[in-house]
Structure to design on (546 residues):
């Protein structure tokens, strides 16, 4: 169930009906002052609560977390961990997208492949990628290969399912019309099926990318010597909660930036497939 | 939709046989190919302890069912998931509706939700363990976290996706705010609630496995991790398959229940 929402011309309840509507994400951007105020207020409450009721080793104040973040940035420690996690995610993401995209398109176009693979896909997609970490570590060791493989697994299913959904969403009449105009199978594939799959593919890739962030954290917690997940677990062992907070915040920022960047790039490259562009 | 239409028509015995044959070919054949491939790969690999063949995995499965360990661990995981998922769903729907209906709430919460939904629940595991210990509380809270945001975002989007025309029409008929909420907004949100819950259920499975791998003495994640440490790869397989089956079953039951309770709201697939 890929979520493709083209929300233009919709209004939110609660606003006066007739007020021009925007999707939620953009709505927040309309009054940036409010968003900033909300964040600052939250940070202030956190600071006060942390100083008044908690010890620094259970709930560090935001100022302490910021100080720790600068310290980690200065020593180059944080950047190294970010780079390690990012390299794994990126490698796995690229391979996984290619595998998932190819399989999804093959399943969408050739019904025999689809019938053969669909039950397997339906079974495996309910197994969280993390569950494979045991066998993967046994087979491929605790090196980079096992972690990249987990990311490949994470990404490929999302891309596959979405590519399949994209091709299945083509109206039958569109295919029939193409046939009436004498399009060959190859032309139908190149000119109708592939373009229909692009947008779904990109949606699947974005979801897969986000899921990869979740997978890599746990994988690095369980078996790694670098990366943000490793940093979180090591900090837990030393009960350095401020470093855990720095890692969590870094993850949030990375996820946000990566998602926005991916959206921008995909719109730049595949703008013609976006209906609302 | 398909199941409903076939249920309405008279189920003759030949139709049943036809369906049985269809499912047999469509599901059994790919599974058989997978198992044959697995067996061949295990033989080629040659280390049954590292890559056990299907038959010995099946024996381990039977043994795990007999001694009750599979059942006990599955129940432990499912109890955690159900507790966290149901509480998180309630929170998620409430927050989503509030965000959709009240601009003030939306403005205050949107920056946080937009940030936090990029931080997976798994990153919070250690922080939650510091605050709430390694017991059930931290796991259930983790699942509430994993569930709430996905549903809240979906529901808020559902509210904002209601066409203006529909709201205006309702207002023209002299509807008040409470009626607007009960008769227009809530029904329009149902497909979004169901979609959000479905995603959240899958997220809960991921989160609980990771949490149980890191700190638990029961549950399927614990089973996977402890089997890895003792190099009982076949037990890991059993746990993974159990996870797949449980994930499939809960998703199926959720969709069944959603169709039963809310089938009229065009849930889609």
């Amino acid at each position: 169930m890929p979520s493709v929402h083209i929300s233009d011309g919709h209004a939110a309840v609660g606003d006066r009906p007739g007020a021009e509507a925007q999707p939620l994400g953009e709505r927040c951007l309309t009054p940036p002052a409010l968003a900033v105020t909300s964040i600052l207020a939250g940070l202030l409450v956190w600071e006060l609560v942390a100083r008044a009721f908690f010890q620094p080793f259970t709930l560090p104040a935001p100022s302490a977390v910021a100080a720790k973040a600068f310290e980690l940035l200065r020593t180059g420690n944080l950047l190294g961990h970010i780079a390690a996690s990012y390299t794994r995610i990126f490698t796995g993401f690229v391979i996984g997208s290619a595998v998932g995209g190819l399989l999804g398109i093959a399943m969408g176009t050739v019904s025999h492949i689809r019938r053969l693979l669909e039950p397997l896909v339906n079974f495996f997609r309910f197994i969280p990628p993390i569950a494979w970490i045991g066998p993967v570590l046994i087979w491929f060791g605790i090196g980079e290969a096992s972690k990249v493989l987990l990311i490949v697994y994470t990404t490929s299913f999302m891309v596959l399912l979405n590519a399949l959904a994209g091709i299945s969403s083509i109206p039958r009449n569109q295919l029939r019309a193409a046939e009436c105009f004498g399009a060959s199978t190859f032309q139908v594939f190149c000119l109708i099926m592939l373009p229909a799959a692009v947008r779904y593919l990109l949606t699947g890739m974005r979801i897969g990318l986000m899921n990869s962030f979740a997978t890599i954290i746990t994988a690095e917690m369980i078996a790694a010597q670098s990366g943000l997940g490793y940093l979180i677990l090591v900090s837990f062992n030393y009960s350095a909660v401020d470093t855990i907070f720095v890692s969590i915040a870094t993850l949030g920022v990375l996820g946000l930036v990566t998602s926005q960047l991916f959206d921008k790039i995909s719109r730049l490259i595949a703008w013609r497939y976006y209906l609302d562009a | 939709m398909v199941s409903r239409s076939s249920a309405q028509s008279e189920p003759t015995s030949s139709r049943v046989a036809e369906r049985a044959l269809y499912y047999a070919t469509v599901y059994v054949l790919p599974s058989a190919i997978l198992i044959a491939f697995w067996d061949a790969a295990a033989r080629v690999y040659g280390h049954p302890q590292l890559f056990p063949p299907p038959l010995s995995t099946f024996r381990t499965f039977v043994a795990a069912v007999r001694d009750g360990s599979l059942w006990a661990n599955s129940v432990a995981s499912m109890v955690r998931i159900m507790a966290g998922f149901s509480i998180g769903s309630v929170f998620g729907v409430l927050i989503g509706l509030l965000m959709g209906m009240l601009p003030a709430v939306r403005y205050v919460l949107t920056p946080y939700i937009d940030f936090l939904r990029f931080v997976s629940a798994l990153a919070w595991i250690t922080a939650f363990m510091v605050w709430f210990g390694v017991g059930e509380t931290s796991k259930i809270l983790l699942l509430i976290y994993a569930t709430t945001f996905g549903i809240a975002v979906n529901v808020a989007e559902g509210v904002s996706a209601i066409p203006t025309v529909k709201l205006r029409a309702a207002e023209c008929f002299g509807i008040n705010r409470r009626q607007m909420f009960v008769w227009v907004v809530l029904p329009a949100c149902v497909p979004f609630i169901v979609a959000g819950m479905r995603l959240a259920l899958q997220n809960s499975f991921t989160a609980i496995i990771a949490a149980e791998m890191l700190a638990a003495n029961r549950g399927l994640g614990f089973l996977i991790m402890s089997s890895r440490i003792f190099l009982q790869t076949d037990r890991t397989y059993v746990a993974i398959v159990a996870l797949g089956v449980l994930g499939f079953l809960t998703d199926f039951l959720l969709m069944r229940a959603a169709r039963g309770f809310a089938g009229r709201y065009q849930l889609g697939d």
Q: What stands out?
A: Chain A touches chain B through 74 residues (CB under 8 Å). The first helix of chain A runs from residue 24 to 29. Chain A is about 75% helix and 0% strand. Residues 28 and 142 of chain A are 43 Å apart (CA to CA).
